């Protein structure tokens, strides 16, 4: 994505919704000014999923990670324009939580349509690799869940095996989400595009 015009000024205008000093957040400050449950989305893209999910769940706080500033800007502007108070963003990814000193903070993690890293030598970069599962285990409360969606068959198979090898319980596994009868699904931008082309969407929930 090309750099957005006046990006820095526009990000500053969304400052109330963006965490800039994540190092401080990792060790000291509460993420929100209340004690509501906190859900984390890793790789929020343009923010369709987090925006709609937050509106449906006003009593849950949402932290959304996106490392591309131009994409993060679009998501933050959505939240600002709709005056949604239970979402905050930061520029980063799952690796930011590798040394999250505050421990088990989150009740749920969402990973939607992440990069499949198709080559075998790239397996450690997949967000469902065991190295990332270790990170999620350390930041999810006991009984917390990971909700995972992808359109990539190989990544989904890899992920199911990874979850099983890690000793995690899985539920609500579907190989065709939009024909499964599952209620309450919120689509991402990619999901809308893929489903309109007739591609099946894979989904599962994993309990830590």
Helix and strand composition category? alpha/beta
End-to-end Cα distance:
35 Å
Q: Hey, roughly how much beta strand do the residues contain?
A: 15-25%
Average pLDDT confidence is: 95
Strand order across the largest sheet: 3-2-1-4-5-7-6
Which blocks of ≥5 consecutive residues have pLDDT under 50? none
Shape: globular
Give the count of helical stretches. Answer: 7
DSSP strand tally? 7
Would you list the SSEs in sequence order as H and E? Answer: HHEHEHEEHEHEHE
Q: Any idea what the radius of gyration is?
A: 17 Å
Helical coverage, percent range: 25-40%
For the sheet with most strands, the description reads: 7 strands, mixed
Structural overview:
With 208 residues, this protein is of the alpha/beta class. It is built from 7 helices and 7 strands. The chain has helices spanning 7-13, 22-27, 48-56, 69-81, 130-139, 153-165, 189-196; strands at 38-42, 61-65, 87-90, 106-112, 140-150, 169-174, 202-207. A 7-stranded mixed beta sheet has the order 3-2-1-4-5-7-6, sandwiched between helices. Strand 1, helix 3 and strand 2 (61-65) form a beta-alpha-beta unit. The N and C termini lie far apart (35 Å). The relative contact order is 0.15. The model has no long low-confidence stretch (mean pLDDT 95).
Key features of this structure:
alpha/beta; seven-stranded mixed β-sheet; 7 strands; globular; 32% helix; 7 helices; 208 residues
Fold topology:
Elements: H1 7-13, H2 22-27, E1 38-42, H3 48-56, E2 61-65, H4 69-81, E3 87-90, E4 106-112, H5 130-139, E5 140-150, H6 153-165, E6 169-174, H7 189-196, E7 202-207
Parallel strand pairs: 1-2, 1-4, 2-3, 4-5
Antiparallel strand pairs: 5-7, 6-7
